[in-house]
Structures are given as structure tokens and as C-alpha cells.
């Protein structure tokens, strides 16, 4: 049986400021640093074979702090932009509440949560999935099929795309899916990569 832990980065400075972040490389907030350390505490007792991360600093730093906290600092780590957050286009850097006042709450929710509607100049969740899932299939799943224990540090939407696939969620179900910052999500998978169970640690 393989174990796959998905870890959304700790709170970033722009999460704190309620701004659309996307591909902008912003650091963790003080709370985000603590969330990453807390995740490390929850991961003690796991022996990871390898880890994967996006190339963005908030995911890299979360991974580093979580692995330090779990007592594992010498495992192979692969970083790839395929795991990056959704690119939010013209919304990047804008305050979410102010954007909702301008365009309406419903429109902003569609931009943030829907499967196939793109924000202006940005990616939809469908677009994000079209880079996340091939990367998972080619680079990560082969280790799952070997029964390894793997940690992925990434972002709200890149992980939503992966969870949608793992749990076979519909477009309607994924609309309501939110992955909290700094909370390790454990999947146990069978020899074919199918989900046997999942829970937050």
C-alpha cells in the first residue's frame, strides 16, 4: 500500500492580505511558517521516500520546514512548475473583497472555484489540471505503484485538480472543494493507485 500526503503551503503574505496570488512568488506569512512547522509535527512517524513541490517559494519553504519538523531532510526532492498554483491573470495582486465589489460575489466565486471558467488572462482549474495530471501520471504515480510514501507540497488549485482526479469528483463537487493551508491530507492507495482512504492528519 502506498501513502501519498498532499500539503498546501502555509499561509502566504498575500493569503493574509486577501489577494489573488497565482504565479507571483510571495513568501510565507509568520502564521504560514508556523503552519508549516505544525505540519512537520503531524508528519513525524512517516518515512517518506521522496517529495515533490512546485517551483514557487511558498511551497518550497513549506516543504523544507515540514520535512525538518518531521525529522527527514535527506530525501530526493523534485520541483516542477507543473505543480504551480493556477495563473490568475489580470486578477493577480488584486484584493479579493474589492474584486467581488467590482464584479460581484457570484462572478468571483466562479473565477475562483469553477472547473472550466478562466479569470481574465488566466487559467481555469481545467487548464491547471491539464498540466498537473500528466505530471502526476508520469513522474509521481510510478512511485505510488511501487508502494512508496510520497509528500507533495503545492497549492490550493493544483492540489484541487489532483484531488478531483483521485476522488473522481464532478465539476459540481469540486466547486465546493477547499484545501486548507498547512494541513497534511493523507491518501492510502492500493497497488493500482486507487484510493482506499483519505483523511486530514
TrEMBL record:
Record InterPro entries: His_Pase_superF_clade-1, His_PPase_superfam, PG/BPGM_mutase_AS, Phosphogly_mut1
Top-level taxonomic group: Bacteria
Entry binding sites for substrate: 8-15, 21-22, 58, 85-88, 96, 112-113, 156-157
SMART domains xrefs: PGAM
Residues of the site described as Transition state stabilizer: 155
Record's keyword annotation contains Isomerase: yes
Function: Catalyzes the interconversion of 2-phosphoglycerate and 3-phosphoglycerate.
The protein's name: 2,3-bisphosphoglycerate-dependent phosphoglycerate mutase
UniProt organism field: Nitrospira lenta
Phylogenetic classification of the source organism: Bacteria, Pseudomonadati, Nitrospirota, Nitrospiria, Nitrospirales
Gene: gpmA
Amino acid at each position: 500500500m502506498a501513502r501519498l500526503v498532499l500539503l498546501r503551503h502555509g499561509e502566504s503574505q498575500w493569503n493574509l492580505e486577501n489577494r489573488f496570488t497565482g504565479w507571483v512568488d510571495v513568501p510565507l506569512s509568520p502564521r504560514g511558517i508556523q503552519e508549516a512547522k505544525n505540519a512537520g509535527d503531524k508528519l513525524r512517524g512517516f518515512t517518506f521516500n521522496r517529495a515533490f513541490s512546485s517551483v514557487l517559494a511558498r511551497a518550497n519553504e513549506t516543504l523544507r520546514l515540514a520535512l525538518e519538523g518531521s525529522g527527514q531532510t535527506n530525501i530526493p526532492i523534485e520541483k516542477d512548475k507543473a505543480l504551480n498554483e493556477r495563473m490568475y491573470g489580470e486578477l493577480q495582486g488584486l484584493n479579493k473583497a474589492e474584486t467581488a465589489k467590482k464584479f460581484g460575489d457570484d462572478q468571483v466565486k466562479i473565477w475562483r472555484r469553477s472547473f472550466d471558467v478562466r479569470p481574465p488572462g488566466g487559467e481555469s482549474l481545467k487548464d491547471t489540471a491539464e498540466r498537473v495530471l500528466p505530471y502526476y501520471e508520469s513522474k509521481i504515480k510510478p512511485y505510488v505503484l511501487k508502494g512508496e510514501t510520497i509528500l507533495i507540497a503545492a497549492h490550493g488549485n493544483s492540489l484541487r485538480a489532483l484531488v478531483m482526479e483521485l476522488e473522481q469528483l464532478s465539476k459540481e463537487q469540486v466547486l465546493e472543494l477547499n484545501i486548507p493551508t498547512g494541513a497534511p491530507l493523507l491518501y492510502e492507495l492500493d497497488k493500482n493507485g486507487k484510493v482506499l482512504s483519505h483523511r486530514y492528519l
